[in-house]
Input
Amino acid sequence: MSPTNAPATAGSGLARLLAPVSPRQFEDEYADQRPLYIGRDDPEYFADLLTFDDVDRLLTLSGPNFENIRVASNGIDAIISSPESRRHEAANRLETIYRHYRAGSTIVLNSVNERIEPLKRLERTLNAELGAGLEMNVYLTPGGQAQGFRPHYDTHDVLVLQIHGKKTWGIYGSPFPQPLPMPAQEFNNMKAILNVPAEPERELELRPGDVLYLPRGTVHAATSNETATVHLTIGIHRQLWFPLIQEALLEVVARDPRLRAALPLGFARTPEATAEAAEQLRTLLGMLAEQAPAQRLLGAAAARTAFNASPSLRNHLNDLETLNELTTTTPVFRRPGIRYNLGVAGSSIRLEFHNKILELPTSLAHTVAFLLNGDEKAFTTADLPAELDEAGRLNLVKRLIGEGFLTLGPASE
Output
């Protein structure tokens, strides 16, 4: 199954975030390699994505349970809605959050891309461009040299967008580059050396409109200056080679008994026996490389990536309400930014989107190609190839609208 991505809107994704650094330059010189700081004298650069007032509104409307809000101070992280805390009755949780904030804690609003449409659109665009899962969290820190988290590293790449106020970032290097997302004990077993220097290697002051990229494993900490500060962190969860290699190993081992065999008896008895066992191991590793279904594993990885972003179903409720009014002259659009995979299995075309699969007969190949290459421009059922009669075309379009692949709304949100 080969992935097909909807084209990203020009200037709306990585190119816009990193300008004047191009995405190609970023990939060649910074991604997985070293931090990137982009300073701008443009405090309104991200105003269309998020503002200080948006954060205030999110706090006000996040109740009553505030599941997506945490507070942090000096490395101590707490979820306000934790049932273990008897003092945090539902009616007082917002006041409790502000009490922590007034005392110097950072407020963390998780998954804001699920609640703010411009950030949802940005998530879809970046998901298509980067082939990675994304999470977007807001960090609101009061003024007065407050620090939510002590020097630490993340096991995913991070893009920091400064939204409001100023914040000083200390960069402490990468004692153990490219850490794997695994429990701390397992990570410690890999002999990771994470002794953080007393002083940062580099110190930066981010102002509104500035961007900071940190590869996974970069130790960092941020402190507010005189006034309150807001930044948006975009966590970039890229797919790694390590899980793919594990998946390949398990699959090949399951079908080749030679890879399930035991080491030779007495393999450590003499240097000659150990050398012979080492040669057998090299042979088995070569077999693994030869038999690993690389293309299929990469295809599966691409499919997982395509559905890391939750579906955008804006206007879908209206679509369902007016579906029976559809005629052969009603304008229809492919849903903007939709991610999908297309494949053929036997006599069926498999269209995978929104984490589900629709099967259509291969006799509709030209119709499917028309729908997928529509470039999100309006069309009518009368425009479809004549592989179905008029009633059949109308029913197909109704089905795809009902499933959320097509929409009756405009092509832009």
Q: What stands out?
A: The chain has three domains: 2-238, 241-293, 316-407. Residues 267 and 273 are 5 Å apart (CA to CA).
